[in-house]
């Protein structure tokens, strides 16, 4: 029987896993094992994947000129 990392550790590993930064094979296996039986964490990572996909698609589009101007002005204040 594989070791279950639990939800707290899974949540801490979410973004590293999604970004490909979780590079220890044992950590990946434990994370994926947890997702295999925890519907809550599985649903959460599924939602995060969909959100990341949507953000990547949106980032490909050019933003309107007025939005870029507003962002530039905001950044200039810093």
* Helix share bin: over 70%
| Main sheet summary | none
Number of E-state strands: 0
| Structural class computed from helices and strand pairing | mainly alpha
Shape: elongated
Q: How many whole angstroms does the radius of gyration measure?
A: 18 Å
Uncertain segments: none
Mean pLDDT: 87
- How far from one another are the termini? 54 Å
What is the helix tally?
4
Q: What proportion of the residues form beta strands (DSSP E)?
A: under 5%
Describe it.
The chain is an all-alpha fold and 78 residues long. The protein has one domain. Helices cover 76% and strands 0% of the residues. It is built from four helices and no strands. Helix 1 packs across helix 2 and helix 2 packs across helix 3. It is elongated, with a radius of gyration of 18 Å. The termini are far apart. The model has no long low-confidence stretch (mean pLDDT 87).
How would you sum up this structure in a few lines?
This protein has 78 residues and is mainly α.
List the helices and strands and how they pair.
Layout: H1 6-18, H2 25-37, H3 39-59, H4 65-76
List keywords for this structure.
78 residues; 4 helices; single chain; mainly alpha; 76% helix
């Amino acid at each position: 029987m594989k070791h279950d990392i639990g939800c707290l550790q899974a949540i801490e590993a979410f973004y590293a896993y999604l970004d490909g930064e979780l590079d220890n094979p044992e950590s990946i296996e434990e994370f994926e094992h947890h997702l295999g039986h925890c519907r809550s964490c599985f649903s959460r990572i599924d939602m995060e994947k969909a959100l990341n996909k949507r953000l990547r698609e949106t980032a490909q589009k050019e933003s309107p000129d007025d939005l870029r101007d507003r962002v530039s002005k905001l950044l200039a204040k810093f």
